[in-house]
C-alpha cells in the first residue's frame, strides 16, 4: 500500500490557499448580497412616505454584513498565521466593502428615522391647519 506523506510546509501552503479561497469566496458573496444600485436609485411611490419606505427596504444590507464578517474572520486568521505572501488586495477589498456596508447601514437608519418622523410631522401640521380653520370660523 502506497501512502503519500506531506510535510508541514506543504500542509501549511495548502491550508493558506484554502484560507485565501475562503476569504475571496466570502468577499464575492458579500458583493452579491449588496443592494442593487437601481433599486436604491429608482424608487416609485404615490407619496413621500411610500418613497421612504421603498428606499428603507432597498438600503437593507441583508446577508452582506454576515458574509463580510466571515471574510474578515478568515482573513484575520490567515494574517495572524502569516499564511499570505501577498494579501494587500484582500485587505483593500475588505476595507472597501466594509465602508459600503457601514454607509448602507447608516443610510438605512437615517431613512428609518425619516420614515417615523414624516407621519408625525404630517399629524402636527394637520392639527395646526385644523386649529387655524376653527379659529377662522369663530
Automatic annotation (TrEMBL):
The keyword Coiled coil applies. It comes from the Archaea. Residues 80-107 form a coiled coil. It holds the Pfam family DUF5790. Keywords: Coiled coil. This is Uncharacterized protein. It comes from Halocatena pleomorpha.
Amino acid at each position: 500500500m502506497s501512502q503519500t506523506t506531506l510535510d508541514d510546509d506543504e500542509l501549511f501552503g495548502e491550508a493558506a490557499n484554502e484560507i485565501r479561497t475562503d476569504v475571496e469566496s466570502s468577499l464575492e458573496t458579500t458583493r452579491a448580497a449588496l443592494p442593487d444600485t437601481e433599486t436604491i436609485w429608482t424608487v416609485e411611490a404615490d407619496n413621500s412616505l411610500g418613497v421612504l419606505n421603498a428606499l428603507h427596504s432597498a438600503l437593507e444590507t441583508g446577508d452582506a454584513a454576515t458574509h463580510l464578517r466571515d471574510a474578515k474572520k478568515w482573513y484575520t486568521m490567515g494574517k495572524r498565521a502569516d499564511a499570505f505572501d501577498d494579501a494587500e488586495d484582500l485587505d483593500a477589498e475588505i476595507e472597501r466593502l466594509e465602508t459600503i456596508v457601514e454607509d448602507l447601514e447608516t443610510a438605512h437608519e437615517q431613512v428609518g428615522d425619516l420614515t417615523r418622523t414624516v407621519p408625525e410631522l404630517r399629524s402636527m401640521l394637520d392639527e395646526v391647519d385644523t386649529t387655524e380653520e376653527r379659529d377662522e370660523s369663530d
